[in-house]
Design a protein that fits this description.
Blueprint lengths: L1 E2 L5 H18 L2 E5 L2 E4 L2 H13 L3 H11 L6 H13 L3 H16 L1
């Protein structure tokens, strides 16, 4: 979930307005407590997390995948990230991750 600080200054105020607007107009975000938001469904959070992971630098992404691949909490996020990478032409990195996972499993 997102925690929003006090809307101090114009940048914070615009972010605050955006969260309120997204929450009110789309229903994607739910205010679960004062200034604390969560996605209405885990699938949205998983999708955005996967996109963020897929855009990581290669070494950071590989380390993340090796560390979290077998973690059930990250299962859907890892699948989505690998699928996103494959669909967007990062086949070599998907292969590198697979090789690192095999190396980690045999060591």
């Amino acid at each position: 979930s997102l925690i929003v600080g006090d809307p101090i200054g114009s940048e914070h105020f615009r972010a605050w307005d955006l969260l309120k607007d997204v929450s009110n107009r789309t229903g994607l975000l739910l205010e679960v407590a004062e200034a604390r938001y969560s996605f209405i469904h885990a699938a949205f959070q998983e999708f955005f997390a996967a996109k963020a992971i897929a855009s990581m630098k290669d070494d950071d992404l590989t380390r993340f995948m090796v560390h979290h691949f077998y973690d059930s909490q990250y299962e859907e996020v890892v699948r989505l990230a690998l699928g996103w990478m494959d669909a967007h032409g990062r086949h070599g990195l998907v292969q590198r991750v697979a090789e690192e996972l095999l190396n980690a499993a045999t060591n």
